[in-house]
Amino acid sequence: MPAMTPHDIHRMIDGLSAEALGELKGRDFLLTWDKSREELETVLQCALVLKALRTSNISARVYDSGLAVSLFRDNSTRTRFSFASACNLLGLTVSDLDEGKSQVAHGETVRETANMVSFMAEAVGIRDDMYIGKGHTYMMRVAKALEQGHKDGVLEQRPTVVNLQCDIDHPTQTMADLLHLVSETGGVEKLKGKKVAMTWAYSPSYGKPLSVPQGVIGLFTRFGMDVRLAYPEGYSLMPDVVDTAGKFAREARGGFRVCGSMQEAFDGADFVYPKSWAPFSVMEERTVLVESGDRHKLQELEKRCLETNARFQDWQCTKELLAQTNNALYMHCLPADISGVSCVRGEVTAEVFDRFRTPLYRQASWKPYIIAAMIFVSRMANARATLSTILDRAESRVL
Amino acid sequence: MPAMTPHDIHRMIDGLSAEALGELKGRDFLLTWDKSREELETVLQCALVLKALRTSNISARVYDSGLAVSLFRDNSTRTRFSFASACNLLGLTVSDLDEGKSQVAHGETVRETANMVSFMAEAVGIRDDMYIGKGHTYMMRVAKALEQGHKDGVLEQRPTVVNLQCDIDHPTQTMADLLHLVSETGGVEKLKGKKVAMTWAYSPSYGKPLSVPQGVIGLFTRFGMDVRLAYPEGYSLMPDVVDTAGKFAREARGGFRVCGSMQEAFDGADFVYPKSWAPFSVMEERTVLVESGDRHKLQELEKRCLETNARFQDWQCTKELLAQTNNALYMHCLPADISGVSCVRGEVTAEVFDRFRTPLYRQASWKPYIIAAMIFVSRMANARATLSTILDRAESRVL
Amino acid sequence: MPAMTPHDIHRMIDGLSAEALGELKGRDFLLTWDKSREELETVLQCALVLKALRTSNISARVYDSGLAVSLFRDNSTRTRFSFASACNLLGLTVSDLDEGKSQVAHGETVRETANMVSFMAEAVGIRDDMYIGKGHTYMMRVAKALEQGHKDGVLEQRPTVVNLQCDIDHPTQTMADLLHLVSETGGVEKLKGKKVAMTWAYSPSYGKPLSVPQGVIGLFTRFGMDVRLAYPEGYSLMPDVVDTAGKFAREARGGFRVCGSMQEAFDGADFVYPKSWAPFSVMEERTVLVESGDRHKLQELEKRCLETNARFQDWQCTKELLAQTNNALYMHCLPADISGVSCVRGEVTAEVFDRFRTPLYRQASWKPYIIAAMIFVSRMANARATLSTILDRAESRVL
Fold first, then answer.
1. Which of A377, B300, C202, C301 has the most Cβ atoms closer than 10 angstroms to its Cβ?
2. In CATH terms, are A6-169+367-393 and A173-363 the same topology?
3. Regions of chain A where pLDDT drops below 50
4. Given this model, what pLDDT does residue B207 score?
5. What is the DSSP secondary structure assignment for residue C60, as one 8-state letter?
6. What gap in Å lies between CA B128 and CA B211, rounded to an integer?
7. In this structure, are residues A224 and A178 in contact, taking their beta carbons and an 8 Å threshold?
8. Cβ neighbour number for residue B7 with a 10 Å cutoff
9. How far is B63 from chain C (nearest CA, A)?
10. DSSP at B254
11. A13 with A49: CB under 8 angstroms?
């Protein structure tokens, strides 16, 4: 991003929709389809402003004190650091709710824990993506508990819940992906009509969440893109999300189509996003088995899935497949399963991955700004005025 | 708490006793009975000022840099987050001394570790509550090491040790409890003569620390309250602490009585605090067994205790018991063992817990402010002047 | 350190070499022998300035936001807290890359991880000291990845890598040790000709890194000291480092000699640094066995080494040995194996350790300032001007 003058940044700030900011204020960010298209664009734009400020060495610190709570129920590198970076940019200190070190196991309810960690919290980021029907439900319960706690005078402020990946959606990822496309193409309006292939790809592992492909089809369709979803037989996504994607495509006069092969999806595509996931039905079965604690059946399920998986080893992103596209940009949420690098055979060849390494890393680099923007638009009483104040006071981030 | 004008807050600050502040300066907070009543009231008042400032969006950040060290030798949710919140409010960054990740196990002495982590530390918060004769002793050793390190020119400042729960007392909990009562009744002087029932209650678990009941009887008696301690035969507390509570009650012209039943303690009570704990003698036996590493005898002890425990399942806080009180406020340090919720049968019925959920959460909400006040009064060279400066500079906590 | 006037501190700042600062800018701190003597002195001097500022209650916070990443592949107390303190002093928030909680295990490359955690990072501190040929190599790879990431526009800034102990060197330790000597003797020029005994000492454990003795001989020789390295037969260090130390001694017209006994090394010494380490050849063998996963052979190696070790129990720092020195200052990186305290028989007698406890703790107290200085000189565009600005704005560290 080229350096911008304060005047440029002021114009970006003026472009933020007051109406959308009004809607975003005080709201959680759990699923992109809970938000209007204008609200989503406002978050993207706010992220761009925050980046422009930082690039200009202007500190966007709006909190002199305040906590952000993180709760990771699954491993994470980039989301953990993105959340830490975003909170730090705004002046919040992250306190990690490590359930192993807490008394959560000792019969504490979600409602109670949510209140107990939030007396001085402005944001709560949660990753809970492993079991169908669990993650989003948990986040809703946390949000409700915080809402009630604030209403009851227990919490002086109502922290914003940010979904750092649930069983259904992964909005901090897909919004960063979208901002990457905006940045690469030159504007959100340029995305209209662009062809995207969101496809399954082979991985030697089993049980990867559905949240990325679901998040992508549920978000990219809203911007008039022509989205093709491809997967081998049996690897379907949640029907609701697929329906929603179809509806969004019709509303935005874009396209949404399910294809039976990578070839079909890649044909003439502008962007390709090949990524492994587990079939919805398997994830459901797995959730039930985990709940019942049936280790034997879980191992059987895993064995069966890996066998099924192995039948689709040709679902790999190769340079030959890319040659059929419209000089497509390769995307991935990382880490990718790279053939010959992180596994014998995986989602993508090393050759393709290497060619796109720099844009892939840039894609990831938007996440801290997206998370900061999600928190910012929810927490600030008047986000536009505050951004102007930040710009005008021009406090140095680095002395 | 209603919004206050700067004038109101100035009056609160003026009300702080200069003499008590002088005594608190540079001192640790390990046991409430080490402090004079005036000192305790000064800490409560300082906590109220810090809350009034935050509610008025005035930042109480007094440190531009500085560390706070936390050491948790037992699980914790609310105390961990309260300590994090308190330190953050004052501008300190918490660094957790995770003994598993440190070289503490490799023959490092308490004296050495205490100095090594404190070169830039202003406060050290410790939870060490599991073994009789250990926690408080450990904190005293840390305090002595820091005192010596500062005297020897090793430490540029002498960090304040804050007891986040030891084997004897739990001052951040009981001071927060007390502030809750002050807030509910309208003033510390209103507490005089109020009847409090601190009673044992049944829990299906074994080995809960004595620090809360001991802390409560050792603190509430100082404010002229009529404190009744009730427990089943065999569940007595440390004799020293019980003696101290009696002495405090006489001095403050309040009351202190040991009762043999919840009924007796609840009769006409204004506040009830039913909570499980392990008998002192059991805790002592357990400490010896843990030291000797005798797992078999430990299991036997646990089995025996659980059997004894099970005989007192009727020690449960019910609405019938509450009906005998003077419309009492139910208190708990949380998490409670709630019958039918976190266990089959526990300390309190779900009905009672639900009725008092909001005041219970508010009770917990004072802890960050109490901890911040404990650190503040110990660290500031002139706490009253500094609070006035904070108020007058009126830096926004949130832009 | 006596309190200094702003005038004194200004003179210290003026003494910083502009040329050396120019060389240090943007560079990592991996090995002291990568730096010129003038650069090393500049880091020492910058550390002294940062200490003088803090002692004068002047905040050296140069970052209003920014992350520091820490990665500890081995246990650590003092380095962990020193890094936390240093970063906090400058305004950076430490985010720990806990590889267990990350996706590093899932086939992520060093290059990718390095970029993914660094979008808003200014410094990356790494401890990786367990295996020969690994730690330094890993740090170089991280540094290269960050360099490339910045060049490719992935990272807005190029974080500085700080070696918090590798297989070869331990510069934050030895630079702190050196600053301790400067502080004790009154100036870096006073070190010329001083006799230092860096000797092996007995420990009941096995496998301690070589980085401290190697770091010491590779650093102290540069300042014209007369360095004697002593160890039992078979406990030699990496030949390259020993050669480098010899070369430095010749260049600085100091001395460097390998002795066969503590007695010889201690004779007339001004400073003694007796410390256990594993033989280079054993560390090499161990690295191969760890890689091959051969637990049986590893146990055999350990057994054999402990047997060899046991033959040298008389390599212990006693008061009798100290009596042969020129009233030497005893040094150690801590924790020491103290006979009768942390082990039956170890590196030093309790009597000697106790006599030097305070200077030992002071020795350790320099590490936070050394780390802060390493980051500062690398990150600041104009370190001298920035220090002057910090001094002139005179923002209070504690209100």
1. A377
2. yes
3. none
4. 85
5. -
6. 11
7. no
8. 8
9. 5
10. -
11. yes
Instruction: Put residue C293 in one of left, alpha, beta given phi > 0 → left and psi -120 to 50 → alpha.
Output: left
Query: Which pLDDT belongs to residue C104?
Result: 63
Q: Cα–Cα distance between C80 and C94 in angstroms, integer?
A: 10
**Residue type present at position C99:** E
Is B173-363 CATH 3.30.930.10? no
Per the CB < 8 A criterion, the answer to whether C94 and C63 are in contact is no
Q: How far apart are the first and last CA of chain B?
A: 22
* pLDDT above 70: percentage of residues in chain C: 98
Q: Write the pLDDT tens digit of every residue in B75-106.
A: 888 899 999 999 999 999 999 998 877 766 55
Domains of chain B, by residue range, sit at: 6-169+367-393, 173-363
Give how far C3 is from chain B: nearest CA, Å: 12
Unique residue bearing structure tokens 């073994």: B131
- Partner-chain contact A368 C63, CB within 8 Å: no
Superfamily of domain B6-169+367-393: Aspartate/ornithine carbamoyltransferase (3.40.50.1370)
Contacts of C208 (CB under 8 A, 6+ apart): C275, C276, C277, C278
Q: How many whole angstroms separate alpha carbon A343 and alpha carbon A204?
A: 7
How distant is the Cα of A92 from the closest Cα of chain B, in angstroms?
A: 9
Give me the residue from C65, C69, C153 closest to A59, CB to CB.
C65
Q: Is C1 helix (H, G, I), strand (E, B) or coil?
A: coil
For residue B291, name the pLDDT band (cuts at 50, 70, 90): confident
pLDDT digits (tens, 9 = 90+) for C185-208: 999 999 999 999 999 999 998 889
SS3 of chain A: the string is: CCCCCHHHHHHHHHCCCHHHHHHHCCCCECCHHHCCHHHHHHHHHHHHHHHHHHHCCECCCCECCCEEEEEECCCCCHHHHHHHHHHHHHCCEEEECCCCCCCCCCCCCHHHHHHHCCCCEEEEEEEECCCCCCHHHHHHHHHHHHHHHHHCCCCCCCCEEEEEEECCCCHHHHHHHHHHHHHHHCCHHHHCCCEEEEEECCCCCCCCCCHHHHHHHHHHHHHCCEEEEECCCCCCCCHHHHHHHHHHHHHCCCEEEEECCHHHHHCCCCEEEEECCCCHHHHHHHHHHHHHCCHHHHHHHHHHHHHHHHCCCCCCECHHHHHCCCCCEECCCCCCCEECCCECCCCEEHHHHHHCHHHHHHHHHCHHHHHHHHHHHHHCCCHHHHHHHHHHHCCECEC
Residue B37, both tokens: 């009543």
pTM as predicted: 0.97
CA R_g for chain A: 21
How many Å apart are CA C376 and CA C87, to the nearest integer? Answer: 10
- Tracing tokens 């200052």 back to the chain, one arrives at C329
Option in C77, C88, C362 nearest B67 (CB): C88
How far is CA C31 from its chain centroid?
Answer: 9
CA distance C367 to B399: 36
Give me the residue label for tokens 């003797």: C185
Beta carbons within 8 Å of A256's beta carbon, 6+ residues apart: A217, A221, A226, A227, A228, A229, A245, A246, A248, A249
Summary mean pLDDT of chain B:
95
Cα B114 to Cα B141: distance, rounded to the nearest angstrom: 9
Average pLDDT over residues C300-307: 92
Q: Judging by beta carbons within 10 Å of its beta carbon (0-12, 13-18, 19+), is residue A223 exposed, middle or buried?
A: buried
| Interface residue ranges in chain C relative to chain A, Cβ cutoff 8 Å | 61-67, 69, 93, 95, 97, 101-104, 106-109, 112-113, 115-117, 119-121, 149, 152-156, 379, 386, 389-390
Confidence of residue C103 (pLDDT cuts 50, 70, 90): low
Identify from C55, C78, C206 which residue to disrupt to test chain B contact, counting B C-beta atoms within 10 A and taking the largest count.
C78
- Radius of gyration, alpha carbons of chain B: 21
